[in-house]
Amino acid sequence: MHHQDATVETVTAAVLRDGYAVIEGVLDADNVRRKRQELRPLLDETDEGANSFLGYRTRRVFALAAKVRCFDDALLHPLVLGVLDQVLEHYQLCVATAIEIGPGESAQTLHADDGVYPLPTAAGPLTINTMWAIDDFTAANGATRLVPGSLGQHEKRTVDSQPVRIAEMPAGSVLIYLGSLWHGGGANHTDRPRLGVVLEYVVSWLRPQENLGLTYPPALVKGLSERLQELLGYNLYPPFLGYVDGKHPAELLRGFTDPPT
Ligand SMILES: O=C(O)CCC(=O)C(=O)O
Predict the structure, then answer these.
(1) How far is the CA of 198 from the centre of ligand 1 (A)?
(2) CB 22 within 8 A of CB 14
(3) Which atom in ligand 1 lies closest to the alpha carbon of residue 167?
(4) pLDDT digits (tens, 9 = 90+) for 114-138
(5) pLDDT at 260
(6) pLDDT, mean of residues 55-67
(7) Pair (237, 203) in one structural domain
(8) Is the CB of 145 under 6 A from ligand 1?
(9) Between the CA of residue 128 and those of 36, 50, 242, what are the distances in Å?
């Protein structure tokens, strides 16, 4: 669907029914260009993956929220947060990673992101992922593959025999999907890389997959908006899960002064 037609209600309904939604035209061309430019030097100094899951021809810049601010608008996008409010209610950032699938990469094995948490499906939705297309995502260059409706299925064997959809989308689009949806990066048969950025969110009563809190010092977080601070982990899940030294994590920031240099 196009951004102009997408509402929190329609996107939430699609995500809960099919496990995903693709929304086009969320970021304009200038915005996408700036993001690409800012990521380039980080990607250039990053090695390709060391196993087939990470991809021997794929570069990943992890801990993105500690390294660049140019994705804060995506991280805080009102449509995305509106869907998260409906589905996860209380959440924080779980993964923030740029993924550049290089020419010659083969398809990543299908998986469900929630699989990292040893919890039964009945625990409800645990994570929601957003994949922001910085390049056009095409069937040829490694657009994300997904299995519509494959929510909460545990047997990869069963999932592998179901029809796969390729999330083709122009740069500036976002693919929103539930952590229980089976998906994976596609093979890149072109001679150019495919860049996307994953911003995944997790209910704030679970540990984020990336140990993000250790990647940004309080001095960095202190200068950010309150909502962003909450998403970066400076929050409490009611009534008190996640306190720091007996206090709300925001208190830590209020009392924080830069150490002498
Ligand atoms: O790059 C993609 O399209 C998806 C990557 C993914 O699902 C992962 O690395 O867990």
Answers:
(1) 8
(2) no
(3) 3
(4) 999 999 877 889 999 999 999 999 9
(5) 65
(6) 97
(7) no
(8) no
(9) 23, 26, 21
Provide mean pLDDT across the span 211-218. 92
DSSP, collapsed to helix, strand or coil, labels residue 23 as strand
Residues 126 and 184 in one domain: yes
Residue of 20, 144, 165, 209 with the most ligand 1 atoms within 8 Å of its CB, for mutation: 144
Beta bridge partners of 58: 101
90/171 same-domain check = yes
User: Cβ(179) to ligand 1 under 6 A?
Assistant: no
- 109 shares its domain with 31: yes
Q: Could you tell me if 206 and 224 lie in one domain?
A: no
Q: Is the model's pLDDT at 177 over the cut of 70?
A: yes
- Tally of structural domains, the chain: 2
1, 21 Cβ separation under 8 angstroms: yes
Ligand 1 pocket member 144 (CB < 6 A)? yes
Res 253 pLDDT > 90: no
Residue-level pLDDT at 261: 66
pLDDT, tens digit (0-9, with 9 covering 90-100), for 222-245: 999 999 999 999 999 999 999 999
> Does residue 196 have its Cβ closer than 6 Å to ligand 1?
yes
User: What's the CATH code of the domain at 106?
Assistant: 2.60.120.620
Q: pTM (2 decimals)? A: 0.95
Same domain, 120 and 73: yes
Q: Are 142 and 194 in contact (CB under 8 A)?
A: yes
Q: Domain of 114?
A: 3-214
Residues 69 and 35: their CA atoms lie apart, in Å, by: 9
